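Sharing a chain and its predicted structure for anyone who wants a worked example. Both blocks are below, sequence first, tokens second.
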Amino acid sequence: LAYALVTTTTTTTTTTTSEGGGGGDDSVVLFCEKSKVAHDRRLMKHLQDAGVRLAPYDDIFATLKSSEFADKKVLMDPARVSAALLEAVDEDNRVLASSPLALMKAVKNPQEI
């Protein structure tokens, strides 16, 4: 289980999802148990090349509660996000909608068909 926190300068919305971590402009942080992925060198290289930063799984709560996110909107999929994660974001900053990742995952490439 992991959380991806994606921020971008083109929008003021931050996306958090349990399908996949934050802060700064155009950044991706994957909150996960690093020990579960660190052994896979190919995966680690891919994440590094893509600019994805790893952070401890439990740090997502403090990150979302930090002053850095005090004025940012956070997209949260109510069907997938935990109550604890919802509570970590001020109600005025929550944007409750389906995760765009679920739709992207539904599209299969020729190898998956």
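Comments welcome. The beta strands are 3-7, 13-17, 27-32, 52-56, 73-76, 94-96.
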